[in-house]
Amino acid sequence: MSEGHDAPPPGDDAEGFPLLEGWMFGRLLFPFAMQEVQRVPPANDDQD
Fold it and tell me: Which domain of life is it from (predicted)?
């Protein structure tokens, strides 16, 4: 490590663009989420 050169805190020198934005992530996970909704019964229904 060189003296006098502190590493910048993470995120301060971020340049470029995100690889995956929020809306992209949502579209990626939507089919899996819908399968899980159909598979798992609602917790608030009576199981009589």
Answer: Bacteria
